[in-house]
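Supplementary Note 2. Why include the ligand at all?

Several targets in our set were suspected to adopt different conformations when bound, so apo predictions alone were not considered sufficient. For every target with a known small-molecule partner we therefore ran a joint prediction. The input for zinc ion is given below.
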Amino acid sequence: MLVSAKEMLNKAREGKYAVGQFNINNLEWTKAILLTAQEQNSPVILGVSEGAGKYMCGYKTVVGMVKGMLEELGITVPVALHLDHGSYDGAKACIEAGFSSVMFDGSHYPIEENIEKTKELVSECEKLGLSIEAEVGSIGGEEDGVIGAGECADPDECKAIADLGVTMLAAGIGNIHGKYPENWAGLSFETLAAVKEKVGDMPLVLHGGTGIPEDMIKKAISLGVAKINVNTECQLAFQEATRKYIEEGKDKQGKGFDPRKLLAPGFEAIKETVKEKMELFGSIGKA
Ligand SMILES: [Zn+2]
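The joint prediction is reproduced in token form.
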């Protein structure tokens, strides 16, 4: 059964660890993440971007696949199925399709509009017992080769959004999506502490978890981060393992062309990456 992310994140915040959100792209990704969570006895959040949702034939397909796997793989750890960086319409569609959690990313709207739209979705999620994540201060990334430094959120705007009753809050603290550039300035712990001061017990979300040094991750958790998003790192692990299999000519040996063999090294690489992240975040054994 899918659960809201609320309880697992409140427990994480209290216990000073973080729950990983791992984004899924297909069956292999989903199975690898769910099996690892079960093996490690860790709560987990499956993230689905709108693009990945389309790729997997729509949100209903995703819900069907995930629910089927929970049952048939015997998954008993808490699992939330969460829309990542959702639009207003995307959040509504996921609520309808059976997701247990959504993110509404209104960070590109003026703050008043972000507040208004977030508020509407909060009331809808509350009725259904779903968790909802909001974002303040957009989280940068590489766009057309231009690398943004990663914005820092305004703590007062964070409080305005947190007060609407969202479950968790993503605040930009210098983090960015994708690979971090060589000259990246690092996370702004000043911003994080200022946000935490304003929002109190609200679990905070760290996006762009790929490539942030371990000591910074641990410090962020100690300052109130209870959810960390990982996407690119699993993609890179999958890519490297698949490349190695093909470069070694294994796809040409025997039945090495069988997709179940061809995709197996990438699948194992995702499992390894997820396990490493769960260790770093401290969520192992916390289911
Ligand atoms: Zn993000």
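The CA atoms of residues 95 and 128 lie 9 Å apart. The mean pLDDT is 94. Comparable summaries for the other entries are listed in the accompanying table.
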